Amino acid sequence: MDFLERMAALRRDRKVFAVATVVARRAPVSSHLGDRAIVFPDGRMEGFIGGACSREIIRKQALDVLQTRCGRLVSIRPEASDASESSAEHVVVPMSCVSEGAVDVFVEPFVDARRLVVVGATPVADALTRLARAIDYDVCRVVDAREQADVAAAVPGATVVTLDALEASLREGVERHVEQAAVVVSQGHYDEQALASILKFTISYVGLVASRKRGAMVRALLEEQNVSGVAAVKIPAGIDLGARTPAEVALSILAEIVQANPSGVAAHARAIEKAILAIDPICGMTVDVATARHTAEVDGETYYFCCANCRATFLRDPRQYRIPT
User: Is residue 88 a part of any domain in this protein?
Assistant: First the structure.
């Protein structure tokens, strides 16, 4: 299948992946301009962007890109050192394998928009929906069944579901590795019910719009019901900006979400799966354990290498290169 058709199919299926493209090269290297590969959250790679060393470097960088949701240029240079200047947008990595060539690879993430779950049919909920949509959040409004039609008409562009569908919606987001935040702003109508459902999932931010007194009551009721994670709920939601109007309150909440999680990546255990990586004891490269082609076992311990040359060097004197455990 054509590479672009493969990307389009993955996007239609709402899959998470990164695309790595060779944008510059200096011979001798095995890759060519325009060579591309797709990297999935579990570390699998489809396509070609270079030999074993470049492949493992790009695999690791792609997993990082999927976490940060921001593309970056990766420059692989034999003359680079660990002290080489790098930034979030341009990473310089030493080429430790036997090669005098160099290659630049642009790694771009393809992930779904962050989702904000807004519970309630209130002016603050409406304002929060409009502001979140303006900064490219996928907004899911959750309301009582009797309120669904009114909310859908009042704030277009958001998905509107009923309270009964809240858990299914959150579960679907978790299964697709979507970064999710949730704010309950029902003004006491169904705060406890919504929070009990939300706290069943790993959510990057959970807030309740309520006074401290009301918030303490909600927290106590949930604790009596043995709901876990209640202490993590931000009450009251939002940074103290002296907000008064619904729009100002919404702004304070979004500011807090961004402040706590600016890249859209949860501070807790990441939703994106990590490949199991080992360190090549010769060159220091990271190697995907699942796909490693060059290994050696010494004294019952397995070592992984990026290429045959590193493995041969190691086996000449394993004691010199063994990594202390």
Answer: yes
Looking at the structure, tell me whether residues 46 and 70 fall in a common domain. Answer: yes
The pLDDT of residue 179: 85
Do both 317 and 221 map to the same domain? no
Structural contact between residues 215 and 208, judged by C-beta atoms closer than 8 angstroms: yes
Report whether 105 contacts 21 (CB < 8 A): yes
Which two tokens mark 223? 């604790």
**CATH number, position 128:** 3.40.50.720
Rounded Cα distance, 183 and 192, in Å: 12
User: With bands split at pLDDT 50, 70 and 90, how would you rate the model's confidence at 218?
Assistant: very high
Domain count, the chain: 3
Residues 122 and 57 in one domain: no
Joined tokens for residue 271:
């939703």
Question: pLDDT tens digit string along 113-158?
Answer: 889 999 999 999 999 999 999 988 999 999 999 988 888 777 777 8
Same domain, 126 and 29: no
pLDDT, one tens digit per residue, over 61-77 is 999 998 888 899 999 98
Q: Are residues 226 and 281 in the same domain?
A: no
Domain that holds residue 287: 277-321
H-type alpha helices, the chain: 3-12, 52-68, 123-134, 148-154, 166-175, 191-198, 212-224, 246-260, 308-316, 318-321
- State whether 183 and 313 are in the same domain: no
Q: What is the mean pLDDT of the chain?
A: 86
Separation of CA 255 from chain center: 19
Task: Identify which of 90, 95, 94 has the alpha carbon closest to the alpha carbon of residue 105.
Answer: 90
Distance of alpha carbon 126 from its chain centroid, rounded?
27
Q: How far apart are CA 269 and CA 283, in angstroms?
A: 29
